[in-house]
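Morning F.,

Quick status update on the modeling queue. The single chain you submitted on Monday has been processed. Sequence for confirmation:
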Amino acid sequence: MSKAHNNSNASINPNRLTINSKIVKLVGWNHHTQFPVTAASPTDAQLDSDIAILKKGNANYVRGAHYPHDPRMIDRLDEAGIMFWSEALGPSVSEKNTKDWDFFMKYQLIQMEEMLDNAMNHASIFTWGFFNEANPEPNPNPHLTLTLT
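Structure tokens below.
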């Protein structure tokens, strides 16, 4: 798989991820927007502190957890050159949820549109997420894995 984005070219094969022909190892963390006192409404100083922590840890990739993130955070990731996994709302999604077009899927699609509107033109966006951490129905094959080809 190959993807050109914002003057970068990313390529994935079964063994390697390359960006602009350089082998890249993803190093990063999950980011939740939850802070003491300010909760899901971080101050600029809190966002700056998070970016500083990521840089100190040599992060090049951040997963934004479960919901579209504050555009100010994505701006900072752009400026820091840190790649971002942007997600729509979706922890603990079940197969039953994905078949509920009267409620669940109706609002999931609204979340997807909001995520795309929020982050579409940001250089840091490397991955889009939809229904992360799915809560599968009982699985007859618990060792089933997905292989990218």
